[in-house]
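so my prof wants the structure for this chain in the tokens format not the other one, which i didnt know existed until like an hour ago. anyway here's the sequence
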Amino acid sequence: MTILAINTTQNVNINFTTASVGERLVAYILDAIILFCYYFLVSILVNQFFQFDDQWSYIGLMMFLMLPMMFYTLIFESLMNGQTPGKRVMKIKVVKIDGFEAGFTDYISRWLMRLIDITFTSGVAAVISIVLSERNQRLGDMVAGTAVISLKQRTGLYNTIQVDLHESYVPIFPAAQFLSDKDATIIKSNFETAYRDGNYDLFYKLRVKIEDVLHIQKGNMSDLEFINVILKDFNYFTGKL
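here's what i got, hopefully its the right format
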């Protein structure tokens, strides 16, 4: 088990447990089963409902219908916030190592590098790089600046995100003091839930709500980082968290 430690620009310390080779391998196998089922179903339907005058027409249609298989990981990781169906089952996901949510360009980089990581080397390059790299990254992760983390058995928030204030702490958002105790409690509770589940949609909704209520902007911070800073600042001014 490897701990991925992220220290963001606002000194928000976040620890994630990286996914093991075994977890990633099982996720890959599950995705491969889904792809095989898709191929099998498409083959049956094409042979059942289409008639071809020549073999090239058949090959052309099959190649077109196989395109979703080629873009499988890119499509699902983009639509499912860093997860494929296999990763979802195994409760692992792709994240940026700088604390921000991975974006489409990051997923493209990972997908392109699969040619070297998996396709051309039968996965040997991926396994070797995951085992030897400090953050359990395959080559695609290194290029994209990502890592695959485990969402299982997450420890409590206070063991993963340092909420305690240092004597030298300087608040970023003075407006945080105007949150009601009820609002701060709701934010903290939802923040813990979103962090535990890796729910970036909930991070986004919390961030938008906070910005709307306090009339502030997060700037260049990630949603996770922004919300944690708000909680720190609230604690700084009120001492109630």
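also thought this was worth mentioning. The CA atoms of residues 21 and 161 lie 25 Å apart.
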